Structures are given as C-alpha cells and as structure tokens.
Request: fold
Amino acid sequence: MTGIDATSMRTDLCGRLGRDDAGRTVTVCGWVDRRREHSEHLAFVDLRDHSGVLQCVVDGARDLRSEFVVRITGTVRRRPEGTANPALATGEVELQDCDVELLSRAEPPPFPLDERTEVDETLRLRHRYVDLRKSRMQHNLRARAAVNRAIRRAMDAQGFVEVETPMLIASTPEGARDFVVPSRKEPGSFYALPQSPQIFKQLTMVGGVDRYYQIARCLRDEDLRADRQFEFCQLDVEASFASRDDVLGFVTRAVAEATVEVAGHDPGTFGRMTWHDAMERFGSDKPDTRFGMELAELTPVFAGTQARVFQAPCTKGICLTGGADSLPRSRVDELVATCQSWGAKGLAWMRVVHAADSIGSALDGGVAKFLSSDEAAGVIEALDARPGDMVFLVADERRLVRHVLGLLRLELGRPPVNDGSFNYLWVLDFPLFEALSAEGDPIPSHHPFTMPHADDLPLLMAGDGPPRGEALLDVRSQAYDLVLNGWELGSGSVRIHRRDVQQRIFEVLGIAPDEARERFGFLLDAFRYGAPPHAGFAVGLDRLAALLVGEENIREVIAFPKTQSGADPLTGAPSPIADTHLRELGLRVLPPA
Reply:
C-alpha cells in the first residue's frame, strides 16, 4: 500500500459513482465495510462512507480489516458481465488498479454494522459513534436536517424572523417538572431550563417582532417513551394580528414543505376535526385516521335495556371486519383483560353471523344471548356489521368508554408507522378545562394564557364572580393540535391579550392576584404596555422527522439520545459531582430515602 500526495483528501463520494464515471481516476475515502479474498494476491474491499458502498479491487489487502479508515485511488470500470450487484447504487461499477493509504487502524467494532443484526439498545447508545455509521442512521440524520432546512425556508418565505430565546430562565408552569440549574453567584437560587419558549415568544409579540419563529431546544423532566425525550426540538411560531386560521396556514405550509423535502411527495390537504368529534368517533384527541373502525354511539340502542351490563350512562362499540374468523377465543380473552387494565369493568364481544332465515345478519356468542332482537338489530345497523365481523362494546361513563375503545381500536387496527402514508389532521376547539379536581376546581387543558372560544366567552365573563361547576367543562378554547398518523406533532392557541379576560381566567383557576404576579409578573407587566392580539404554535421536530422516515421511536432520529430510563450510556450521565463543586454552589446532597 502506498501513500498518495493530493491537495484534497478525495475527489468523489463512494455512493455517487456510476457507469457514466467509467474510465475516470478517482480518490475515495471511508471505512472498510467488508473484505473478500478473490485470489492469493487480490481482494474485493467494500469501502463505505455516508453516501454508500463502493467495491474496490485491491492488490495486497491482507492488512485491511473491518472499520479501518483508508483512502483509495483507482480507475472506475464497469463490472464484468454477470457480476453487477443491483442491491447497491454503485453495483454496476468497481474501482480497479487501486492504491491504498491507511489513515487509521480500528479495533473490531462492538457490534455488526449491518442492518440485519438486532443489537441491545444500551450497547448501541454506549457506542453511538459506531452506531451512527449505519446507513439507516446516516439517512435519518440527513432527513432530519432536511426537515429543518425546509422549515426555515418556508418560515422565511412567510415573513417570519428567527429569534433565539434564553436557555437559563425562571421556572414557569408548563405541565411538567423543570430541569434546574443552581446559581453559583446566588447560592440557594436556581435557573430553570425552558420547557418551551412560551412566555418569551409572547414577549417578542409585545416587542413588535410581528412574526417570530425558532427551531428551539426544550427540556422537560418527565417519563420517557417512544415519542418523548428529556431534550427535544420544536418549531416554535408566534404571529401578531393573526387568527387561528392564519397560524394553521403558516404551519401547514412549513410542515408540507418538510414532507416534500423528505418523502418526495405533497401530503395534500390537512384535514380538520373538532376535539369533540375526535373523541366521539376515535376515542382520542390524536386520532389515527389511516383506517376506519370508528366508535359508534350505541347509548340510544340500550336506552331501555334489561341487560345489566349495558345499563350505563354511555355505550359505544367498534366493529372488526373479518374478526369472527381471524380472532381466536384466546386472543379475545386477552383483549378483555387488556381493556380491564385500561379501567373498563369488562369488554362485551359478539360475532356477526348470517341470520337463521339467511336474510340479513345476527349476533352470536359472547353477550349476544342477553340482547333483545331490537337491540341486536340496532347494534348491527349502528356498526354497519356484516357476517364474519366481530363487534366489541363498552358501557360505562362516557370519558372511560371513549378512552378504552380508542385504545382497543389502535390495538386491533393500527397500521405500521412506516406504511408510507401521511394523514395530517388539525384537531380544533379543545375544551378550556379538561376536568374538575376533587375540590371542584377546574384543571386547565393548556397554559392559562389560552383565549376562550369567542362563542363561550360570555359564559366566563358574565356575573360578578367566576362561574363554577360542570358548566365550565363545556367552555371551548381557541386551542388546536396537529396530528400525524396518530401522533401529536404539536399544539398551539390564540393567546389572551385582554387584561379582563386574563384576570377572569386566573380567578376561575383560583390564582390570586399576588400569586399571579409572582408567577407571571414579567409577562403581565409587558401586557400593560400594549399587547397585540397574537397566536402561535409549536411542532415537535423529532416526532415529525421520525414519522417521515418511518421510525417508531424518536431516538432513531436523534444523534445522542437517552435510554428509556433517562441515562446516557455514552457519557455516564447523570453522574455525581465533586464535593468541592457542591460547596461552591452552596448545595448539599441528601442521602437516598
């Protein structure tokens, strides 16, 4: 192997060479992917860089091992007839007459780099710098970069200004625990890391920025799952003198352009659905609309029923097409137990069969014997059930019925995340309050700066004191979510800019004026000096990128993520800090409870 003098390390990328390059002398750099002996002196060396793999015919390659870093100069030629590899983008060519320079030796990697081998996640993340060499990870990270590039292009074209907001802030209520940073200069005091730039982006509106955006890094101390990490990125948007539909238009354009950039095709129209319809039809405020199996309202069918199991405030059902033949009894029993684990008292099921007179359909098995003929006919009609189908019913409080059947629908029918379809859906008109506490106080669905729906505002503002009781749960907000294939991509709202409305919301939530000033004083002070009407949104870019490349977990589009437990096997974080550092910060660590 010889050294090569060159002013540049390489002339081409491995995966970019093809039949049109035949006869060219090129220099490529990368990692040895595989070495295959061809004869006593010749070997085929597959050289890999981020763009792909190139086969090189090397004389005297016995010293080359997997993951050695080399530079190879040779002449591109078409492979001999019958030896082309259609599985490779460069499969029609190879490099011959090769000179090889060894740039770096490598120990055997801790796991194979082919995509066929399953590797323990902790091992992958401990050696993430090796895992990132895989073609899958290279593709995912470049797709994520393409998402950011397309979004910036779309926001700039719509007149938005990119503004960076601080990472060390005061703690603000955002729905999860803050990560906190101790102050060395003021021992006993702490900064918080932002869960979102919510208050600061509203302050940019007061500051006259007019249209703000930021690809913002946010941090939340909450339990991790497939679509959640401690650290995440979002497209953060805020606009002055803008309505809800304006914001939906801004975000739709940015997300659609990102989809085109990565997936190569326009996702088409983004659907719209009210929160109420989503909950009634799909049992979820983030419905997966790629398949049917919608929840059917059966409460009127059982209005006068003698069957005790259906004597409940609400009964709904779903129909599994072909389920009578595809679901064995053991699987049905598993589904019953699963629904009970979700909070249901049980799960009623019945098979749909041909009626005895061979005209129409009937119900059989399960709880069918407890139904009257009119009730059975009502179930079949409401669910549009046919012979060979199976129906599942839940009866209980409406909130629980929707929740359980919504989860069961996904369990039975949800397509894989990488099925190639992108069903974007705007969910609108969320309730302003999601529930009442045990003391009867309303629990806000979003942050306390969300503007109530214009039609429901009189209910909140009427009278000398704030309204109380169940009537509050009917108040809608001007809040909206963007959903993709059953994943919530983000949420936003029209903000409160009127002092009287903000004061009434604080009163309803039981936040006294002194507490409001302590928690939100700098925002309320800013509003005293002229706050324009404004609205905004935030899109989770990790989630968007994961769905666009067909990944089930956002860890696969993050370069250096945490494990499910929140640990970082690569660096060993979180880890203790030295006593001298603790003393400098004025901190003392208590022993474990």
